[in-house]
Amino acid sequence: MEKTRCLIIGSGPAGYTAGIYTGRADLKPILYEGEQPGGQLTITTEIENFPGYPEGVAGTAMMDDLRRQAQRFGCDVRTGYIVEARLDSRPFHLKDDHGVEIEADTVVIATGASAKWIGIDSEREFYGSGVSACATCDGPFYKNQVVAVVGGGDTACEEANYLSTLCSKVYLVHRRDELRASKAMQHRVLNNPKIEMLWNSRISRILGTTLDGVTGIELEDTKTGAHSEREVTGVFVAIGHKPNTDFLAGQVELDEQGYIKIHHPSTATNIPGVFAAGDVCDPNYRQAIVAAGRGCIAAMDVERFLQEN
Length: 309
What we know:
It is built from seven helices and 17 strands. By secondary structure, it is an alpha/beta fold. The protein has two domains: 181 residues, FAD/NAD(P)-binding domain (3-Layer(bba) Sandwich), CATH 3.50.50; 121 residues, FAD/NAD(P)-binding domain. Strand 2, helix 2 and strand 3 form a beta-alpha-beta unit. The longest helix has 21 residues. The chain starts with a strand and ends with a helix.
């Protein structure tokens, strides 16, 4: 049984930043990177909106910078992930995917949220090179181009409206004949001359090449089965995110969408000594800079908690 004053579960901006701050506080934290070290930023295109990178930076490069910075301050960064967490009493008991058991005085959950994807092979082929799950992150790369957004809820409508301020045209692909979004959001989309609705449609294939990237989409009519094509250079999937909290087995209080509830302005959860930061508790912003800031707050909350307890 290993022991640590702080166990950080998850990498990405929130986890690595928590590692930097707890490491500098001499807490000798252990950090598990999870199934996708570096988080969602490792499959996005170049990042232009994170402070400190005036020329932009690849997501993998930025996460490597944060990782090495955390290690510099004594954070024990480990590959693998936590499969079991018993949080009913302190110290907390957790187990990783290799069977290693850890006893932790505090825990920071920074496991993020995974985008829900369409589920077709060509979608995976173009991850980060024409297919995105974040219009705010990647939309500026498609100025004056034609793109498609997939979905029918508020998120899809918000992303379509946002992209319409940058792109020459936006197709909103929805498998039904009416939107699920709020009436106000529907009104904005349906009255936007740069957005064209593709009702009763699903993307059956994303067209393109490794050299050219995405060049179009193949559509299937969900009622008739007929196929058609549209020329686009980008596809934005906006059918929701799933917070990565399954390993918690319902021990931490979640909201109706499955995100961890925290006691603002802190990062404290309903369990004393357990904190959460990043997309796992943020359904609204989902930005790297926000996650990094919350990772800092979580680390400071940990330090304060340990001093008081």
